[in-house]
Design brief:
Number of helices: 22
CATH architecture of one domain: Up-down Bundle
CATH class of one domain: Mainly Alpha
CATH superfamily of one domain: Phosphate transport system protein phou homolog 2, domain 2
Order of helices and strands: HHHHHHHHHHHHHHHHHHHHHH
Number of strands: 0
Largest sheet: none
Length: 579
């Protein structure tokens, strides 16, 4: 095998992988909103979870991407462990679509003949001014590159028939009985770990099988190994996630390892069943029959072997799901026993909850994580505001200092969470995303900036109160009552802001009159209380310095109202769909 032929083979593999990623990216951007809605409709019913995983993986053509997404959502608390297990089972079934697509279109129909002419449509669509057409153009180009890459791979692999020594060496590995099954199983696992794509490994296995390099039963062993290798991606993503995320990734490993174990125990009868179904369903020779061998890439035996391998992939995952879906609670208990919760988990109150498992390989769905983290930050900010309200009423110096320290801590938390969300959004923005998603991400940058400013306001209130205490000033009962009224109006505005964030996230935000009303109420209260305080300063009925602290607090509360109306306005501009 010459150097040029080797680099051609590697380049063809790269084209195949790039085409698959491009096609997946185009599909995600074209259906991003619908995918997020699909996820939000998920229920605790394991069977619906299976259908969800099947549907999403069939769309984005990557079980690894679906599994990483599920791990991230478990980490975020959007899915329970039981829901995640069901979705992962469905994802394993969904990934078998790729094998059938490659076997039918890439080998038997040779769609690569049409791939180059189709590229002109991909080019024309990608140059459209409409975002949706650009996404469809990307999808078409990715589809064409995938099958062109597959065609080049088939053409660039060496013909071992012309080098009988090499062919004998390869086939000798298949002559060790059950030991050969284990050898090829390990080979399939390692190849998937290296390529990080079970679909690419499946395509390579189909090529090796169609050219007669390996017998059918060894190709089946490779497919079983690929199912183990594909679990590594989710475990890598979960390694920096919380306990539940690690358990979700472990459930994926248990699912596939259990399946491989029973498939190895029943290897001969299982292959016999696959061969019988393939023979009777497609009218081709039985690929599992004794003496069956592929003599050439265009022979009936080659067609039978390709269909048989795809059938094994589907039947394996389908059977495994039908067995294990009934034991979802038991799997949940098993992974909870294997992955123990850390003893200090209760101390992890202020860590990120929604994006700590790392960016998703599906950027359109990453927005889901970021938005939930923003709502989480909004609730943190509201808690800080409630501490500020408590601090206003606290006369005991020691207890006030505890509250002041909490407000300082919450301001630091807001800074840290804002930075980490922004860093995450930077990563998402660097990927290929739709125009709508890009607009929403820009709004999110502004929103987290406003939420960070709310944290600053909480700390500012603590500083004003601290200066008041240092100068030994006290508010009278009427001033305390007015400050509580103002603080209550701010808390109400927080509730409105969080409700608008949740509505925008769910796609149900229609207008923000509630936010304008809340902000108007805060402004009216601030104006009335400030005017009354100025009059009292003028007539000398209250201490000047105490009144200054009082007015400063009123102004800080009013600024908080401004930050919150800004957030609702950002939501209105980016998340309300105009007809």
């Amino acid at each position: 095998m010459g150097i040029l032929q080797l680099f051609t083979l590697l380049g063809a593999l790269g084209m195949f992988l790039y085409g698959m990623n491009l096609m997946s990216s185009g599909l995600q951007k074209a259906a991003g909103e619908k995918l997020r809605g699909f996820l939000s409709a998920m229920t605790s019913n394991p069977f619906k979870g299976v259908l969800t995983g099947l549907g999403i993986t069939s769309i984005i053509q990557s079980s690894s991407a679906t599994t990483v997404m599920v791990v991230s959502f478990v980490n975020a608390g959007l899915l329970t462990l039981a829901q995640a297990i069901g979705v992962i089972m469905g994802a394993n079934i969904g990934t078998t679509v790729t094998a059938w697509m490659v076997a039918w279109l890439g080998f038997k129909s040779d769609i690569s003949v049409l791939a180059v002419p189709l590229m002109i449509f991909g080019f024309l669509f990608s140059n459209s001014k409409r975002d949706q057409r650009k996404n469809i153009g990307e999808l078409i180009v990715g589809f064409c590159l995938l099958f062109l890459g597959l065609s080049f791979m088939k053409e660039s692999v060496p013909d071992l028939g012309q080098t009988p020594e090499v062919l004998n060496f390869v086939t000798s590995w298949a002559s060790h009985g059950f030991g050969s099954v284990l050898i090829f199983l390990v080979f399939g696992t390692i190849l998937t770990l290296v390529l990080q794509s079970s679909s690419a490994t499946m395509a390579i296995t189909l090529i090796m099988l169609s050219m007669g390099w390996i017998p059918f039963h060894m190709a089946c062993a490779m497919v079983l190994g690929e199912n183990i290798g594909t679990t590594i991606t989710a475990n890598i993503a979960a390694s920096i996630g919380n306990t539940q995320a690690k358990r979700a990734a472990m459930s994926h490993t248990i699912f596939n390892v259990f399946g491989v174990i029973w498939a190895l125990i029943l290897f001969t009868p299982f292959l016999g069943l696959v061969g019988w179904i393939t023979e009777n369903l497609f009218g081709v020779p039985n690929p599992a029959a004794e003496g069956f061998a592929v003599t050439s890439a265009n022979s009936p035996e080659s067609t039978s072997a390709l269909y048989g391998l795809s059938m094994l992939h589907t039947l394996f995952n389908l059977t495994n799901t039908l067995i294990l879906v009934w034991f979802t609670p038991l799997i949940g208990k098993l992974v909870s026993w294997i992955v123990r919760a850390p003893k200090n988990q209760e101390k992890e109150v202020f860590r990120l909850q929604y994006i700590s498992a790392g960016p998703l390989s599906t950027p359109e769905l990453s927005v889901e994580q970021a938005f939930n983290e923003i709502i989480h930050l909004a609730n943190i900010s509201k808690t800080g505001a409630e501490y500020a309200r408590t601090a206003i009423n606290e006369a005991d110096t020691d207890k006030f200092e505890e509250l002041r320290n909490k407000l300082v801590k919450y301001e630091e938390i807001s800074d840290r969470v804002e930075f980490e969300i922004a860093s995450f959004l930077n990563g998402v923005s660097s990927e290929e995303i739709s125009e709508i998603t890009s607009k929403q991400i820009k709004a999110m940058y502004k929103i987290i900036g406003e939420l960070e400013s709310l944290g600053d306001s909480g700390e500012s209130i603590s500083r004003i109160l601290s200066r008041k205490n240092i100068h030994k000033k006290k508010f009278d009962d009427e001033s305390i009552k007015n400050l509580n009224t103002m603080a209550k109006a701010v808390t109400d505005a927080y509730d409105v802001m969080i409700a608008n964030l949740s509505a925008a996230h769910n796609g149900t935000l229609e207008e923000i009159s509630n936010a304008y009303n809340a902000e108007s109420n805060i402004n009216t209260l601030r104006n009335n209380f400030r005017e009354a305080a100025v009059e009292e300063i003028d007539n000398g009925s209250k201490n000047y310095q105490t009144s200054v602290y009082y007015i400063d607090l009123m102004n800080e509360f009013e600024r908080m109202g401004d930050y919150m109306i800004n957030i609702s306005q950002d939501l209105e501009r980016a998340f309300i769909r105009r007809q």
